[in-house]
Design brief:
- With 138 residues, the chain is mostly helical.
- Helix content is 44%, strand content 10%.
- β1 and β2 form a beta hairpin.
Length: 138
């Protein structure tokens, strides 16, 4: 990375692109190494972890399951009808809808403002980390 005291935008953008490129290359290398490490964990469970120790290195491999609803409307209907056990149902906020409602309330849409004001105490709204993408143009 350039270490000038007065970094200009062009330098920062170029340095970011170089760092991101290295990050992606190292990610590919890490994934290839992880594929090779799997040879040391032949009997991994569907869920859970195993540990391998050798030559002062300790490697922990973990497996988990990702579970997503395929058809939301059918799922909600199944929950409503009692076909889905209540102990596996958890309600999450639909962030896109919440953000849309928030923008409408900020724009003084009366209906949105009423709804948003009523439900806001139920939520914590904090700014997320700023993400960056830098692309070098022509």
């Amino acid at each position: 990375m350039n270490t000038t005291t007065a970094l200009d935008y062009k330098t920062l953008a170029a340095d970011w692109m170089a760092a991101k490129s290295k990050e992606n290359a190292w990610k590919e290398k890490r994934l290839a190494i992880e594929a090779e490490l799997m040879h040391f964990f032949p009997d991994m469970p569907e869920e859970g972890q195993r540990t391998y120790n050798e030559a002062s290195y300790k490697t922990v491999a973990k497996n988990d399951l990702n579970i997503k609803v395929v058809n939301r409307d059918a799922f909600v209907l199944a929950v409503t009808e009692g076909a889905v056990p209540s102990n596996i149902v958890q309600f999450d906020i639909y962030e896109t809808g919440f953000k849309r409602l928030r923008r409408q309330a900020i724009a003084n849409d009366e209906n949105a403002l009423n709804v948003y004001s009523r439900i806001l105490p139920l939520f914590s709204v904090t700014p997320a980390k700023t993400g960056f993408t830098v692309v070098k143009g022509a």
